[in-house]
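WARN retry 2 of 3 for item q-0093 after timeout on previous attempt; input resubmitted unchanged.
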Amino acid sequence: MNRNQKAERRLYPRIEQQLPIKVVANGYDFATSTQNVSCVGAYCQIDKYVPPFTKVMVRLSLPILTGNGSKNYNVECSGVVVRTEDQEDRGFNIAIFFNHIREDQKRKISEYVNQFLPQKSSVSISRV
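OK item q-0093 returned
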């Protein structure tokens, strides 16, 4: 691997993909799109400051390819803001860690993410 290639060292790969996401924090509802997503978190932009360690509710809409085309799945979970970055005139980027997510919801996100990864790099969440 050369210097310009970054190895994905994360246990759960993330992809840069815009997905509809709804974030509820401190009584505010934000409808936005992800900048990247994995089965344990998401990164998105909102228009109001939300401090790190704020608990949030999240709803993602995932278009997953099936044998008959694609089907939309909704994933709902709770999370915590782990990073907030001021984007000056464009709002704030927030990184959300999904701290309470059901395994079946995690598998749906993993299935979505795996659609965009080379086959040998795919990580799936096995049933326990």
